[in-house]
Amino acid sequence: MMMTGENSITFPDDVRAAFLAFQDDYLADVLRLWDCDLRDWHDPAVMIFRFESDDILLWREMNALKCKKGTVDATTSRSSIPEKVEASIDIDACLCWLPDDSYSDFIGFTTITHDLLQAMSRLSF
Q1: Contact between residue 63 and residue 20 where contact means Cβ atoms under 8 Å apart
Q2: Which of these, 54, 31, 29, lies nearest to 44 by C-alpha position?
Q3: Are strands 47-51 and 55-61 parallel, antiparallel or unpaired?
Q4: According to the 3-state scheme, what is the secondary structure of 30-54?
Q5: What integer pLDDT is reported at residue 6 of this predicted model?
Q6: Do residues 33 and 43 make contact, with C-beta atoms less than 8 angstroms apart?
Q7: E-state strands within the chain
Q8: 73 — phi, psi (to 5°)?
Q9: Cβ neighbours of residue 117 under 8 Å, at least 6 residues apart?
Q10: What backbone phi and psi angles, to 5 degrees, belong to 31?
Q11: Which of 45, 85, 95, 103 could form a disulfide with 30 if both were Cys (CB 3.0 to 4.6 A apart)?
C-alpha cells in the first residue's frame, strides 16, 4: 500500500496489517529511541506504538520497515531493540525511549490507524 505525501513510503503488507489489527484499540503512547549524547532521535523508524492491549515495535532493516507485535519493555532500551538495529549502534551509546509528541493528536483515540499510517508516511525513513 502506497501512502501519499511529500516523502511517501511503502508500508509492507505485514506492517499495515499489524496496525490495522489495532483499529478498535486506544493508542496509549508513541515512543522513539532517543540518543542522549547526540540529543536527537536515534533513527526515525525505531518506534514503539503502545496500544491499550499490546505494543507494536517498528524499525527499519535494510531500507524495509519491519514490525513485531508484543509487549516491549521500554525501561531497558537495549534489550527491546531488534538484533539488526542493535548491531548498528555503538556499544557506548546512551539510549532511552522517550514519548514522541508529534503523535499526541492520536493518543487516547480508537479508529485512528489509517490516519496514523498516513502521518507515519511523512517521515523520512
Answers
A1: no
A2: 31
A3: antiparallel
A4: EEEEEECCCCEECCCCCEEEEECCC
A5: 42
A6: yes
A7: 27-35, 40-41, 47-51, 55-61, 64-69, 95-99
A8: -80, 100
A9: 3, 11, 16, 19
A10: -115, 145
A11: 103
- Residue labelled with grid coordinates 525513513: 125
Cell numbers 551509546 correspond to what residue?
93
| Burial of 112 from C-beta contacts in 10 A (0-12 / 13-18 / 19+) | buried
> How do residues 21-50 score in pLDDT, each as one tens digit?
999 999 999 999 888 988 988 877 889 999
Q: How far apart (Å, rounded) are the C-alpha atoms in residues 88 and 32?
A: 16
Residues of the chain with pLDDT under 50: 1-8
* pTM of the predicted model as reported, rounded to 2 decimal places: 0.84
Residue 24 half-sphere exposure toward CB, CA atoms < 13 A:
0
Measure the CA–CA gap between 48 and 116, rounded to whole angstroms: 13
